[in-house]
Structure formats: C-alpha cells, structure tokens
Fold each of these.
Amino acid sequence: MHRISSGPRVVLFDLDGTLVDSVELIVRCFQHTTAYHLGAPLERTTIVATIGRPLRACLEEIAPGRGEALYATYREFNNAQHDLLIQPIAGMLSVLPVLRGWGYPLGVVTSKTRVGAEAALARFELGAVLDTVVCLEDTIQHKPEPEPLLCAARRLGVAPEQALYVGDSTFDVRSAQAAGMPVAAVLWGAGKEADLHALRPTYLLSDPAELLELLRPAPRDSGETPVVGRSAGHALQF
C-alpha cells in the first residue's frame, strides 16, 4: 500500500453523479424539454456528456436564442419529477458522516443553481454534514475553470493543495487540476473510465468504500495516511 506523509485537511464533493444519482432525472428533463421545443428528444449520450456544466449554457448551445424558454420548461419538469427520480449513490450517504466524525470539514462544489442543489441536498438530509456549498451563483466562472473550487477552499480556510476534490466527470478533474487541487475521480457517475483515466487524476476510485480507505486517519504513532484505490498517475503530495 502506497503511503503519503500527510493527508488533505478538507474534502470537497461534486453533487450530481458523485453524491446523488441524478442521471436519469437529468436525461428525462432534457428529453422532455427538447421533444417539446425542438420536436425530438436529445440522445442520451449527448445529454450525459453535458453533466457537470451549467445547465443554461448547455440549453443555449442546443437551441441558440431559445435557451431561456428551454430552461423554463426544463425547470418545470424537474420540479415535478425531482423527488421521484433522484436517488442516493449507494454507500455515499454513510461515507459523509464517517468523514465528518474523523474531523474533516466537508463541502459541495456544483454547477447547479442554489435552488437545485438545495433540493437535492434536502432530499437526503445532507445539509447537516456540510460546511459549505458552492453553487452556480457563487462564482463568475464555472467548472472546468478553477474558480468554484478556489472559492470553496477560501471559505474553509485552506490552500487548494490542502483540499481533496471528489467528482465523476472530466469537468471535475480539469477544474481541480487547474486549481492545483488533488482530485479523486469516481467511476460510479456519468464519466467514462477511459476519459477520466486519460486526464491522470490523482486517484481513480470504483467504490465509495475506497474513499474511506484513502482518508482513514493513520494510527497515532505512524504519522502517515493510508492510500488505496487505483492511482491513476502522479501521486500528489497533499
């Protein structure tokens, strides 16, 4: 088992595809919206490739000049179907309280609006274990730019290299790398393993339990943090 001499001080998470399984909700919202406005539903693979980016920008790209109309239809359908279609990621809801119990401040960094993020967090009562939530409205630039992650690090009083970002998309990996932040890419969300691996994230995890192994406090006499999972490239020193 590879070991590093010190670990991250805080842990930040993406939301969609990382903490909650919202892929089916997103796909159905997109397909309902594009069928209504454009006459045919968008292909699932095209929709999944947008997950992690701001919604309004994606809809404007699909229908230039009509993005706001599509956004209104999307939000109406989302509001009606949200609690029926969104699901927790198996294992992740139990991971967060354990990390909090180990003393890690926790945060979420998402491209969702605050209304959308709070609805997802409230659905599974996650707000109580989080110390900060950075949403679309909190920064000018968005993933894959580094600004949202840098905002979260500032709020929690740490340097970027002292935080670990956990996300499922290439946008998450690129944002963390641009911020100078170690990143654990996860394989249980929307991202494809080959695409994530190609970006050489710090860690590549296939199961939420691996995150606990990665972050488990070391025995008091060792001074080291155990690291497991599949290292995808350079092992960054936190």
Amino acid sequence: MTTSKQPVESAKPAWALQTTPHADALRLSVAPMMDWTDTHCRVFHRLLAPQARLYSEMVHANAVVLGDRARLLAMDPCEHPVALQLGGSEPALLAQAARIAADWGYDEVNLNCGCPSDRVQAGRFGACLMREPALVADSVAAMIAAVPEVPITVKCRLGVDDDHEWERFARFIDTVAQAGCRMFVVHARNAWLQGLSPKENREVPPLRYDWAYRLKRERPDLRVVVNGGIADADEATAHLDHVDGAMLGRAAYHTPYLLHELSVRWFGGVQRSRGDLLRAYRPYVESQLARGVFLKHITRHLLGLFSGQPGGRAFRQTLSEGAHKPGADWSLVERALSLTEREPVLHDHP
C-alpha cells in the first residue's frame, strides 16, 4: 500500500453514495476525531471493518486551500469509503475546499457544525453554526454546486448551551436540508460554548437519542446517523431500529476490536483474531517505515487492540516504551504481540 499524494479523477455519478455499496457504510462509521483519525488510524480501522465509513480529522477549509495538501489530505486507497470533514463558515472557501477534496478522491465532504472548542468559537465555525442555519445552508449550497458528484453532509449537535427546543433544532435541519443536504450525523447532545472543555462537552451534556430518532421518523427522506456515547455492540445495534446508522467515536479508538465485532455482526464474514488482524497491517506499516515515517506515529493507534484481554497491558506498554526509539520497526510489534499469545501461568495455592 502507498499513500496517495496526487489528486484522483472521480467518475462516480451524483449521490453515488445512495446507489452503490458505499450506502452500506452509513450503518457503521467512525467519527472524525482530532489528533486521532489520521490516515494511519484509518487504514487500521479499515482492516477491522471493511464496510465502515471512515472520517478524517477536521481540517479547516482555509488549510485545504492554502496549506500542505499532501500532508493534510493524505489517504491510502484502501480507506474508501472515506470522508473529509471540513471546518469553516465562508461558503466560497468551503466550496473551493470541497472541490479539492473531491479531486483527491474523498467519497464525502462533511461540514462540522458541532465542535465546541475555543478555536472554533473564535473562528465562527463548528458548534457556533448551530445558531446560524442560513449561513450553513448557504455553505452547503455552495459546496453542492462545486461538487455535485460527491455527497455534502453535516455533523451537528442538538443545540448550543441552553437551547433545548426541538423546534429550533428542527428548523436548523430543515433550513440546511432545503439547501440540498440529505444526510445528517447527529451528536445527540448540546454543545456548551461556555464553562465546559471540549472533553467535558463529549461527556457532560445529557444524551438525547430520541431527538435523532424523531428526526428520522418525521423526515424519513433524510439519512440520519446517530453519534455520541455509544460504547458497546448491543447499544450500537439497538440504534439501527430507529436511524440509518451508528457512528462510534472514542469506543472505536480505545477498543478498536469493537469495530471488527460490529462489522461481522452487521455485514457478515468470519471473525478474525486480534493477532491476525494486526499482522494484516504489517505491509502498510513497513511501507510507511520505508518512507521515513516513525513507528510511534503508527503504533499509537494500536494501543487499545488488546484492551481487557490477557497480556493487553504488556502489549500496550511494550509499544508505548519502544516505538519512539531510533530504528524501531515491525519486530517491536511482534514482540508486543507475543506477550498476548503466551499460555497463562498456573500457580498452585496452598
């Protein structure tokens, strides 16, 4: 595998997502997570869940237009279907960035209307946009006009601070849908712009999945994916009775084998062992090492693979302590893996 560094030509028809196997990926997806869902992470997650939809970290539209695209938009061909999440609030700039994303081969462009950090507040994007539905609609319309062949989607919250009115949330959705957006990823909490850190915003505001369920029930023509606080396979599966899909965030990252379990449960196939899946990652890892990538940038995404399993702590410790050392290579991964494969030592107790 090699990392794509050049734009690719897209030949998919408009809204191909709804008419190709990519539509199946709505059911299971991995949330865009800053500092986590880079291309190394996404390639690993693709091995675990072949049908899942993967999302990039949020990238500001201005960075896409003016920045180092080879770094910001790095993507391996195996990642498809994969979406680029954009931040921003200037319709023309977002349209330009969406066009670039499509030219680089992304299967979807998602607009972030949910991030509550200080940085997005200062830049008037992210969760702030929940209070500017007309601006979001203008942005979506501009992006659709620029890239009619690629779905433009929105990831949002239920509201901002003490906005607890269903009607306000519904107006936001309807305004943006009228501009052409047909898919919404709903992080089923409010975003608090004052008084809570981004981490607290992922945990403190109460979850209200019923709003996402109601949105799908009352607007069945929209595709609705629910996100927020989904921690296990049974919970994720239960959401499919009400919405089109479940998006996992921290659970997918910290316990990535959950992705594989859900992939087999929802799409079929043979469940593979953690060791088999990890060894399937070796060709990619070695290709990246040959390009000068340090092992630590790759193995940081593997630390939770054996979470809760015998040898899991030793596996994590071995990678954490060794991956940053000069010359660290795949042999370190094998050494860590061997610690999970030993027969348990039995002790006699008097």
Amino acid sequence: MQAEWEEQASTWLAMPINEENWASRRDRIDAFYSKLIETILKFQPVKILDDLKIPHNDIWIRDYGPFFVKDGIVEYEFNAWGEKFPPWDLDNLVPQKIAELMNLPVKSFPWILEGGAVEFNGDGLCLTTEPCLCGKARNAADKRDELLNDIKTSFNLKSILVLPDGLPGDHTDGHIDNLARFVAKNRVVMAEGFDTSLVKDYLQKYYEDVIVDSLPLPSLGEPKSYMNFIFVNGGLIVPTYNCAYDSIALDYFQRIFPDREVIGMDCSAPIEEGGSLHCLSKQEMKV
C-alpha cells in the first residue's frame, strides 16, 4: 500500500444523492462539491461514481471504496460503521464495480474494514484503532489476530499499531483519519490532547529520527479534525471550520510541506453529517 503523498492518478468522489441526509442543506452541499471538484482538478483528474454510472448510497467513498494497491484492488466488506446507517448495499458493491470498469484484479477479504480506519506510511507501517476492528457489529473479538494478519497480508505490511480509541463522538467509532495521520514515513500528526507516546514508541522501532506533532481540535466533543486532509499531486487540501484554530493548522501544514500548495476548504457542510475531506474521497495511486 502506497503512502498518500506519492503520485496519484486521480481522486474518486461520490455525489451527495442521499436526500435524507442532504435535502435540507442541498444548496450548501452542492456548492461545497462544486468547489471541491474545481480545486482538485487544478492538480489531478477527478473520477465521480455518478458520472460512471456506479450506484451508491452516500458520499463516504473513503470507507466503502476500493483500496488501490500496486497490483490491483483490495476489497473489504462495508456495513455502514457497524450497521448504524442503512442501507449500505450499493456502497458495498462499489469496489467490484470499479474493478470491472478498470479491468483490475481484486483480492477480497471477508472482514468489516473501512478505509478511514487504517492509515499507511508507504513503508510497511499502519495505524488503526481498536473499536474500528472489533467494535459492535463489526468483527468478532476472538478473530482479532486473524483479522490483523489478513490486513498485514493484503497491504504487505511489517506491522500494525492499534490505538485504544479515536475521537469521542465520532459515529465511525473512532476512525484513525480523524486522530492521527502520517505526513512522512517517520512523522505523524495527531489531535491535541491524545497520548503521543504509543505512536512515538512504535515509530522508533523502525526509524532513528521520529517526529509526532499535535494540532488542536476545532471543537471538543465533536468529530471535527484537521487530520482529515487529503493529498493531491503538488498540493494538500485541509478542512477548515471557521474557527480560530484554522490558521494554526494551515500554517503547520505549509511549514512541513513547503513544496506543496496548501489550501484550506470550509467543510462546515459535510461535517454536519459527520465527515470531511478524507472521509468523502479516495485516492487512486499511479502505478
């Protein structure tokens, strides 16, 4: 599994067609998507499920979409974060539909695993959280070792660090992409207020120079996070929430990525349904 900062072929999106979620905020979410697509297109192609006639239930393609790996597609099962938000039948078929469209081989695994639950450094390391592995209506606790072994195998990993929890109030049960993200193979940025020592100790097993940074949360008790950014070729798009911490986050990312154009994007519309930029997109890597 490649790191997200490596060269990408495109960004995949799914349009906000779920009227139950988006009808009351139709103008805002449509304006958000127009701006998002326009912004990504400055850096790389955008592929949209709806344009390609691939049906889906909602926008969160990060979690139900395929994992694009160097030799094709890896597919896990999706059940809407522990059967919380039915229906999810169309979402769960999306990896196979994309594989058929692109004529790519698929390796399928029978476990529940969302894309936002795993974070990779492109050098064989992975971060995840315990509730997203074996939480309610996910995978059986007594199958945990078997699950972890399949995750290692499917993504060619050296090891996986399982953190005890994610952000409180996150309806995904604590996805890692709201808590901790790799910004280099030996560097992680985490939400402020969480213990960084587990991540630091983990990285030090593999690298001499290790950095674990922290960024404030836009608001306590809500799953808003600056960690939900996305890489594009030559750029980084960072969620903002119209609060005082936005400038701190943007300054941080520009400092550590001086060669990338760092763009802040107001995510107050999608976050009302619990997700942000990383949650609603999926990178297709260049191979």
